[in-house]
Design goal:
It comes from Metabacillus mangrovi. Its main location: other. The chain has helices at about 10-20, 25-35, 50-75, 90-95, 120-130, 150-160, 160-170, 220-225, 230-235, 245-255, 275, and strands at about 80-90, 105-110, 115-120, 175-185, 195-205, 210-220, 260-265, 295-300, 300-310, 315-325. The protein has eleven helices and ten strands. The protein folds into three domains: about 10-40, no CATH class; about 50-235, Chemotaxis protein chec, CATH 3.40.1550; about 260-330, Surface presentation of antigens (SPOA) (Roll), CATH 2.30.330.10.
């Protein structure tokens, strides 16, 4: 039922039309029933929930950051990579969306089954290769005349980027990405059936003045064993493994033996640089703290307690009075 609210005049007009026969009440009911029916395309079966899509988005946002760092170091120029979209589509639709000739890196992610495709816009790939070879990073497209040297340079560049992909997945699964093929024609790769659901992650890439896209295609068969781990429940759990009591005891023992500096501040004073330069043995500097006021005890550089001075066994000492609340409370 529509959430639109009718005015009184509209209600009167509607009732009048039904009464005079200008509008059929049964026809209105049929139209309302028809609106409730949603068309479902079995060729585009949704196999990932919104929750799982959000988890994949987080993983690849991390991958984009790692990739930005990697390419910035390799190319020594301005690089910016961000996640543009994460969608689930039939594999056939992904293949149709690619140019006739493009850069395709196909790699496995053991121990998971199947392969993943990293499709790189030729302009981006050539801009990266131009920087590696000492150029300014200009983007151009001559993929139909790709030489063996150019193929090797591009292949090595993207193969090393797979270390970032392994690191991005560490919180979910331990994978070992390994480059398998380097292709330029999408028609030569057929990883799954045309109607198989795949996840397509689109990354926006900026290399100097050249911009383009990197698309990752992950078939459902690759993610199937770890789909339960792509839920919010898994992400929100603070600890996925049992803690070894021996490790806890060892850590506690090391912390207890850690030495920290504890200092008692008698007071402070301000003097000029000239007065400081003129100080001589026997000179007296007056503190700004009254003698009867408690001392400030610092743990490291953080004010922690107040105390009163005294002696124990002919040695100077302080007696803790209470917690100090007048300074950096984050140190409590």
């Amino acid at each position: 039922m529509s959430g639109e609210v009718l005015s009184q005049s509209e209600i009167d007009a509607l009732l009048s039309a039904i009464t005079t026969g200008e509008m059929d009440a049964e026809e209105l009911k049929r139209e309302d029933a028809e609106k409730k029916i949603k068309t479902y395309d079995f060729k585009r079966a949704l196999r990932f929930s919104k929750d799982q899509i959000r988890s994949l988005t987080r993983i690849h946002e991390n991958f984009a950051r790692l990739l930005t760092t990697y390419f910035s170091a390799q190319l020594r120029t301005y690089i910016q990579i961000t996640v543009a979209s994460v969608d689930q589509v039939p594999y056939e639709e992904f293949v149709r969306s690619m140019p006739k000739m493009t850069i395709l890196n196909i790699f496995e992610v053991q121990p998971l089954e199947g392969r993943i495709v990293m499709e790189v816009n030729p302009n981006i790939a050539y801009a990266m290769m131009d920087r590696v070879m000492g150029g300014l990073g200009s983007g151009f497209n001559k993929i139909d005349t790709l030489t063996e040297i150019e193929t090797r340079i591009m292949s090595n560049l993207f193969e090393k980027s797979l270390d970032s992909y392994r690191e991005a997945w560490q919180t979910i699964a331990e994978i070992e990405p390994e480059m398998q093929e380097f292709e330029v024609n999408p028609q030569f790769i057929q990883m799954v059936s045309p109607n198989e659901t795949v996840i397509v992650i689109s990354l926006t890439v900026q290399v100097g003045d050249t911009s383009g896209m990197i698309n990752l295609c992950i078939p459902h068969i690759v993610l199937e064993p770890i789909i339960p781990k792509l839920s919010v429940h898994y992400w929100m759990q603070s600890d996925r493994k049992e803690v070894d009591p021996a490790e806890t005891d060892a850590l506690k023992e090391r912390i207890e033996k850690t030495q920290i500096t504890v200092s008692a501040e008698l007071g402070s004073s301000e003097i000029t640089i000239h007065e400081f330069m003129e100080l001589q043995k026997g000179d007296i500097i007056q503190m700004d703290q009254p003698i009867g006021q408690p001392l400030l005890i610092k743990i490291g550089d953080i004010p922690k307690y107040t105390a009163q001075p005294g002696k124990i066994n002919r040695k100077l000492a302080v007696q803790i009075l209470e917690h100090y609340f007048g300074g950096n409370e984050d140190g409590e």
